[in-house]
Design brief:
Number of helices: 6
CATH class of the domain at 55-204: Alpha Beta
Radius of gyration: 16 Å
CATH topology of the domain at 55-204: Rossmann fold
Strand content: 25-35%
CATH architecture of the domain at 55-204: 3-Layer(aba) Sandwich
Order of helices and strands: HHEEHEHEHEEHEEE
Shape: globular
Distance between the termini: 41 Å
Number of strands: 9
Largest sheet: 7 strands, mixed
Strand order of the largest sheet: 5-4-3-6-7-8-9
CATH superfamily of the domain at 55-204: Vaccinia Virus protein VP39
Bound molecules: S-adenosyl-L-homocysteine
Helix content: 25-40%
Length: 215
């Protein structure tokens, strides 16, 4: 049995050593990562590893991203509190919970119904309610609620799905890993009028984005 205090300590260490030390400064983001109990999003067998510097299995061949990757991607979205956010790849719902703490509302799309159902339970457990989980092919985005101030894709795509660009609001940011199935580049794409400005945020490794505009 691991005590609650131990998790709080592990979380603080995670934020200091893996996230702040690597240059993330957004106080609201650091606070959210310090407070959201990441271990409750993974199987109890993985609780002792939940705050370690690596991804973890969440079932159905999928993974919860490394804490730093969650921080880096969220930071790149530049959330200030009022945004409507679209997430593609709910997984266990951990990234969703962080986004929900920093924005007004989050729509999160997952293709695997079993994962989405478990994520719903996880989010309720930690008291996150400003989210709508959807089971669908997220490579088509979620047009019903578009446009979005921020879109985050937590699976690797062969190219940026056109619907996701189209569902960005003016000034909106899309953060997405694009590459082959082994390694990808993390891109931030910002909509400026009908122009899309691309910034390279570095190399990364994600599970496949599977769907009409994916693999
Ligand atoms: N953010 C998640 C990461 C999950 S891994 C977390 O914190 O747990 C990526 C997820 O993307 C997987 O759950 C996978 O099933 C999902 N996925 C892959 N292709 C998808 C698609 N086209 N639409 C929605 N979800 C997709």
């Amino acid at each position: 049995m691991i005590a609650r205090n131990d998790f709080a300590l592990a979380r603080r260490r995670m934020v200091e050593e893996q996230i702040m030390r690597r240059g993330v400064r957004d106080q609201r983001l650091l606070k959210a990562m310090n407070e959201v109990p990441r271990h409750l999003f993974v199987d109890e067998a993985f609780w002792s590893q939940a705050y370690n510097d690596h991804p973890l299995a969440i079932g159905e061949g999928q993974t919860i991203s490394q804490p730093f990757m969650v921080a880096l991607m969220t930071d790149a979205l530049g959330l200030t509190g009022g945004e409507k956010v679209l997430e593609i790849g709910t997984g266990c719902g951990y990234q969703t919970a962080i986004l929900a703490r920093l924005a007004d509302w989050v729509y999160s799309v997952e293709r695997l119904a079993g994962l989405s159902r478990r994520a719903q339970g996880n989010l309720e457990k930690v008291g996150v309610f400003n989210v709508n989980l959807v089971v669908a092919d997220g490579t088509k985005g979620w047009p019903a609620e578009a446009p979005y101030d921020a879109i985050i894709v937590t699976a690797g795509a062969p190219a940026t799905p056109r619907p996701l660009r189209e569902q960005l609001a003016q000034g909106g940011r899309l953060v997405i890993p694009v590459g082959d199935r082994r390694v990808q580049t993390l891109w931030r794409i910002t909509r400026k009028g009908e122009e899309f400005v691309q910034e390279d945020l570095g190399g990364c490794r994600f599970v496949d984005l599977i769907g009409e505009h994916g693999w």
